[in-house]
């Protein structure tokens, strides 16, 4: 297992999203990561039944917020070197990328995911003053 220090810049996978952040605390099996940018927007739906629409609750999954801190399993944290993109720009780019890939699919999952993303988009516009 890698050893990290507080303040290290890292990539972190949380549920189905991927982020750039900095370590703010280290516990035996998790790193607390402050989110600085989004590398991959979370996939919509039920984590336990990926790409299924016939589930009890189809989740709207927003990206972790700027400077939000999350407990991330240490095995899902890797060192990061390089420029850290602007959070709002990275959020918009990853959102648009996910939306574009879903628009190319003609599946029930894609349609339901696009509905969820439209709801999330309204929240992002209010929270971050983003224009999509």
From TrEMBL:
GO molecular-function term, one example from the UniProt record: kinase activity
Ranges that cross the membrane: none
Endpoints of the signal sequence: none
Kinase in keyword set: yes
SMART domains named in the record: KapB (SM01298)
Presence of the UniProt keyword Transmembrane helix in the record: no
InterPro entries: KapB, KapB_sf
Pfam families attached to this UniProt entry: KapB
Keywords: Kinase, Transferase
Name by which UniProt lists this protein: Kinase
Organism: Falsibacillus albus
